[in-house]
Specification:
Blueprint (H helix, E strand, L loop, with lengths): L1 H14 L10 H8 L2 H6 L2 E5 L5 H5 L4 E5 L3 H6 L14 E6 L8 H13 L1 E12 L9 H5 L7 H11 L1 E5 L3 E3 L4 E9 L2
Parallel strand pairs: 1-2, 1-3, 3-4
Antiparallel strand pairs: 4-7, 5-7, 6-7
The structure holds S-adenosylmethionine.
Length: 189
């Protein structure tokens, strides 16, 4: 998987290929997760799965931490993150956006474990899920590379094994209403 993601990041560098390497704006995170208040108060932020690093770059005036499966992705944001290791218990707000559908259950549980371990007791992990109906927008290639789509109860069950969901965003519909996405605020148990 790591090799495959490195290849995607490399392609993005060379010819601007954006199929899998997205670069969402910080504002889109704040809007989707409805977490502007928590973000404004946050001193420390952590992003898991950084894509182009756009949102992370926009998180100015915060103490920024980041991780990604790809070394190329991490290299790209080295100038603005002060560690490459996964932080422990010092994070006010963590984001894991457009990543969950790319990983299997086991990896997602790992991400949840270290994402939640990174949080202060008052911190939140904002994580997005695509509903199984979204499968038509994902290529077979991605599924073969370990991606998985979960329905709402599967997602909630998995997340609740590791932490507690304290807020679920309203669903967002794409693709003529046939595809939906939602996000959770997750706290440590
Ligand atoms: C679709 S991009 C999302 C980027 C950004 N968060 C956004 O919303 O635009 C997925 C990112 O997750 C990373 N990724 C994939 N699997 C991962 C894993 N198991 N752990 C951490 N990062 C992962 C990829 O390398 C890529 O940078």
């Amino acid at each position: 998987m790591q090799k495959w993601w490195d290849e995607q990041h490399e392609k993005f560098n060379i010819n601007g290929e954006k199929k899998y390497i997205t670069g969402s704006a910080l504002q889109s995170y704040l809007d989707f997760y409805q977490c502007s208040t928590q973000y404004a108060k946050a001193k420390t932020v952590f992003e898991i799965g950084i894509g182009t690093g756009r949102a992370l770059r926009e998180m100015e005036n915060k103490d920024r931490y980041a991780t990604d499966i790809s070394e190329i992705a991490k290299e790209r944001v080295k100038d603005i993150t002060n560690v490459t290791d996964i932080p422990i218990k010092c994070i006010d707000i963590a984001f894991c956006n457009l990543v969950a559908q790319h990983v299997n259950d086991e990896t997602l549980q790992e991400i949840l474990k270290y994402g939640l371990a990174s949080l202060k007791p008052t911190g939140i992990l904002c994580m997005q899920f695509a509903d199984a109906k979204a499968s038509n927008i994902y290529s077979k290639e991605l599924m073969l590379k370990g991606g998985i789509l979960r329905n709402e109860s599967q997602s909630a069950e998995l997340v609740n094994q590791e932490g507690k969901i304290v807020f679920t965003t309203p669903k967002r519909y794409f693709n003529g209403g046939s595809v939906w996405w939602y996000g959770y605020h997750i706290r440590r148990k």
